[in-house]
Amino acid sequence: MKRRLAVLAVVAAALWMLPYALDSYAIHVVDVTLIFALLAIGLGLAMGIAGQVNLAQVAFFGVGAYTVAILTTHNGFGFWTAALLALVATAVTGLFVGTPALRVQSHYLGIVTLGLALAFTNWVTNAAVAGGAEGINAIPVPQFPGVDLSSEYLFYYLELIVFAIALAFGLFVVRTPLGRRMRAMRDDPLAAGAVGVEVPMLRMTAFALASVYGGTAGVLYAGLVRYVAPESFSIANMFLLLAMVIIGGRQSLLGCVAGAVTLSLLRELLSDYPTYAQVVYGSIVVLVVVFAPTGLAGLPSRFRRRRAGPRQELRPFTPFDLVSTEDSRPLLELSDISKQFRGLRALDEVSLTVRAGEIRGIVGPNGSGKTTLFNVITGLYKPTAGSVSFAGAQVTGAAPYRLARAGMARTFQNLRLFGALTVRENVLVALDRTRTRSIWRYPLWPLGVWRQDRALRAAGDELLGRFGLADFADARPGALPYGIQRRVEIARAMAQQPRLLLLDEPAAGLNGEEVRQLSEIVRSIRDSGVTVVLIEHNMGLVMSLCERVTVLASGRIIADGTPAEVAIAPAVVEAYLGDSMADTVEQVVIEEVGR
Ligand code: ADP
Ligand code: MG
After folding, report:
1. Residues 492 and 430: beta-carbon distance below 8 Å
2. Does the CA dihedral 365-333-408-518 come out positive or negative?
């Protein structure tokens, strides 16, 4: 911490002294570089952090600059009033550009945003109010008491302060709940929705954030150059900006800044060879993508030697507090659910009632529709027919994040942890129950956000400790053994404090001891008042844990009852003929009788 502060102080002092070492041309280059760095941070937030392809960043930049230009020269506004209105205008544009993000998939967003950027350049080139191809000149010098901002040396300090605030704010966002959710959404939007992240709203927020950075850069540009023309906001500049973010390393805001500085300087070096400039940028991008996909930001960790950490082990699970509830009303009710995939009927009129406090087993051969059933319950799939009610409310077709917030949590058959987040962050994303709309606190009450983050972290560490995962809090899930990843996923689901927990083959790939621990965990979860539905092939586990078992075959329920009843049902015996179930059941029954 001390070392960081020292580095920060040295960097700040160096940046403050920088103009003394520069001639009037060099300071201009530096001023422009800072503006590009702001743009790159905005683009990095949308693309690198939130995973939203945004090719309209240069249009946000343009809206900011042109609004200032038009309002000051045509409408007689002062610079600062115009600047404020320009920021409002870009934020509105950002929300507008982000609206398609509510509906279309990420890769189409590239086309949509590129179209909007082209529409913008087209408009400014042709509109009389924007001065056409000549643009607008004679934008007034921003007035500031005691400081002559027409000097590019003094303008540098204005830029530096704005840049420092913008960078600090960006880093704050990335490290606190909003940024964590954005990164989770980038890694796996589907799993993010399942843990309650309001994906559509969040995608729009990413565009709004990017646009405010773009607008701020535009305002500064108008104040610095005091002249705007269409070519500054062209698609060529958009690709330059994109190159900055890719070369610097998308997932790190400091990387984006490094990329902006590198390419701005390179652009100066190449300014005498405009024919080759684009080719050089292009080649560098290709080289970076192939040889250093994490960009400049990823280089330090490549050369850092990995020290072997302290011994890490999965510690025992600490049971949850017992909660005795008399409530055994139906919590989940499915009636006549069908799900059709083209020619395949994956679910065929499935009706099922799960009472509060139950551990329900769902078994059936591979492909019988078990996972599809979970996907329908959790809102991932809309059923072709039938209805789902949860806790007394009709929820058929509700969005996954709504159901998650209403108290459903699940794990996935093939594990869907957020790969670029640490184990702790995986849990924190799920713990955080605040709504996306409360992000107004970021600009207006950051202290509140910071406090909330601290409280979340404390709760997260407690939960990780309970699941015996404390040693792995800072590890990336992908680096951990399979059994531990499975447990992280259960911990993440429990972080949502659900009423209903859906486990999709939680014992798959676990060894004997791990299965025993799993059984203990599931029982404790139920005893803490959470209803559990369990899809499992491990019959020993199902028979020992579940009060009731539902058997699916080819999308239909063929039996439903206590484990002993189900095991001898003729339809089940037939469905499992030659399969291992009959044997396992026999085994379990013999053990029970022998006791
Ligand atoms: P289980 O979990 O019981 O092994 P699933 O629910 O995964 O079975 O699959 C049931 C059937 O539905 C399978 O035949 C599978 O191929 C099909 N299926 C599942 N999801 C989809 C999908 N998204 N599109 C098309 N077919 C699907
Ligand atoms: Mg399955």
Report:
1. yes
2. negative
Ligand 2 mean position, distance from CA 347 (Å): 13
Q: Where are the domains of the chain?
A: 27-234, 320-407+498-595, 424-495
User: How much is the pLDDT for 595?
Assistant: 46
Give the list of residues 6+ apart from residue 525 with CB closer than 8 angstroms, or none. 320, 494, 501, 532
| CB neighbourhood size of 446 (10 A) | 15
Percent of the chain clearing pLDDT 70 (strictly above) = 95
Confidence class for position 324, pLDDT limits 50, 70, 90: confident
Residue 365 Cα: closest atom of ligand 1: 3
Average pLDDT of 261-275?
88
Three-state SS at 561: strand
Residue 530 pLDDT greater than 90, yes or no? yes
**Contact predicate 357/546, CB 8 Å:** no
Please give the pLDDT value at position 26: 92
Q: Is 196 left (phi over 0), alpha (psi -120 to 50) or beta?
A: left
Q: Is 377 in the pocket of ligand 1 (CB under 6 A)?
A: no
Class of 320-407+498-595 in CATH: alpha beta
Say if residue 580's pLDDT is above 70. Answer: no
Nearest CA to ligand 1 atom 15: 367
